[in-house]
Amino acid sequence: MAKEPKKPNELTPKQAAFVREYLIDLNATQAAVRAGYSPKTAGVISVELMTKPHVKAAIDAAIAERSERTGIDAAWLLNRLADEAEADLADIYSENGALKPVRDWPKIWRQGLVAGVEHIEVKDREGNATGDVIVKIKISDRVKRLELIGKHVGVQAFLEKVEVAGVEALADRIARAKAKAGGK
Which residues contact 96 (CB under 8 A, 6 or more apart)? Predict the structure, then answer.
């Protein structure tokens, strides 16, 4: 039995596997390897696949479907980043300045703002535990959140390089104008 010919914009089984694998970590080269392409040529193949309109369309559709299914989209992300950026450190401390138990922290602090908690048992000079504990909290990077918000909303506050289109054409026009003025 002969194979039916593939339609021009239909994904091959390997391309479909590439699309599924790409959604895992958004790493095109690794997705190509996991989809069965040769590790030696995966870098080149992944670039080719990402530039094929029907493959790119399949990836975009899969990402949109996943976003719809999970309810996580650009608006969700921006709201989450804003909530994290505005979270008040005072919310995890009691009125007397003691750290509240983690179960009493606001949800936003329990879900990612704290990068680590370290409990250090206090000891006396002889090395015996005093019963006191020092708690060190490592807070995740708030500046990174602000940068992400700025990039997302197009604030342009974090651009490292500004490109201006048309400068070369303007320079040419000025040079021609100067030549005309000097030639008269």
Answer: none
Range of the domain at 125: 76-141
Does the pTM surpass 0.70? The reply is no
Rg (CA), the chain: 28
CA distance 72 to 151: 18
Do the beta carbons of residue 35 and residue 50 sit within 8 Å? Answer: no
Angle between helices 13-25 and 53-70 (to 10 degrees): 50
Domain count for the chain, please give it.
3
Summarised one tens digit per residue, pLDDT across range 74-104 is: 788 888 888 888 889 899 999 998 888 889 9
Here the tokens at position 115 are 């990068």
98 belongs to a structural domain: yes
Helix (H) or strand (E) holding 101: none
